[in-house]
Amino acid sequence: xxxxxxxxVQMPKLRVAKEYKDKRKSIDDVERxxxxxxxxxxxxxxxxxxxxxxxxxxxxxxxxxxxLATATATRSVRSQRRADLPLTAGEQLDVIxxxxxxxxxxxxxxxxxxxxxxxxxxxx
Length: 124
Description:
- The chain has 124 residues and is α+β, with helices and mostly antiparallel strands.
- Helices cover 35% and strands 20% of the residues.
- A five-stranded antiparallel β-sheet has the order 4-3-2-1-5.
């Protein structure tokens, strides 16, 4: 025996019922489906495109959408109307455009756009 074999602990092999083994393999095959990720990515991009189209129609925004800054929501705020963006405390937002007054147009992680008051945001 070599030096490494001297310290190895030998574990007994457990017998597994054939039905259980087959069931476990089929579950592993389902979880390892490589096309699953592509599908969710496509659905997400379609949803983002739909939100962007709605944003452009609602806000009459024809400029290029560029992120000016990143901000964090300081507290949770419910939206009063469709044009307002609902916030949760600590949520990361992309500032798209600064409008006149105390509001800015932001985009959240789900791709929704809306007005957010500056006092609810923390800029780093």
